[in-house]
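Sample intake sheet
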Amino acid sequence: MRPVALGEIVGLAAYEGLRPAYLERARAMKRPRRLGVGEHVTLLFENRETVRFQVQEMVRVERLADPAAVQHELDVYNALVPGEHELSATLFVEITELEHIKAELDRLVGIDAHVALVLGEGDEERLVRARFDPMQMEEERISAVQYLRFPLGDADVAALADDELRARVRIDHPNYRHEAEIGPELRAALLADLRSEPAPLLRPGPGEGVVAGPAVDELLAERGRARALRPARPVVPGHVMVESLGPARFSSADPALLGDCLALLQAQTDDCTARFGACRVLLDLPPAGAPEEPLRWHVLPLPVGGSRSPH
């Protein structure tokens, strides 16, 4: 998933009016993403919309109007946005008795080596150990809030997608042994995160952003591992991009990914032709030896002045 950009954050004045409805949507989104593991530990599985919500609330609480200050919050919270083939979560150690907090946290030192996503069971059990943020770890104490990730291989993603296989989170710390089943709602949310970015719950309207730029591409449609975008800075009116979610090479892209891209491309060329009478498609080809980038096509109405590629 892409990190949340500064241009996607609504400024203080506009946010107050939008907040009641946004809070309702954000809480509904987060509710199935919480998983209690035993009495004292809860995991909240993150995506870019949970991160955007955290930043919006920080902007409100801290009364942040300076774009540089907002960007600092984004730099902190964007570390929670999961990467490709990855799940991200915040782990909360929840102890209500203030006098017991330090003692209970001390008992959980070393928990970073004892949290796992468990897929299947018996001889077919797959164990994906969590990777904790090393910047938070200390030898003799832990924080009540920890950030962690589960890096998944293709077989792990397939197992998570198989409803016939159990999925759960296990903590096997000597002082805290619990596991919790990942139910259908959470499972569906995690699979959705692995397949594509979530639809935005909040968008700045004209003049509502923290800053006037940078502009943000508008999501038009998604299919599998591909999406169609209206560029924030179009070459001409009606310009649409179709791209893969994540880097790939045309020479080695798998057929399913190409199928998703080409199906969206066909839909966008049909729409462009219906609206403008004709269109052309340009393909971005990176130079030989360049790092992998998303596969990308540009759909442009005709006539288009000049012949230069927009990328």
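Comment: The longest strand covers residues 86-93. Residues 218-301 form a domain with the HIT family, subunit A fold (CATH 3.30.428.10).
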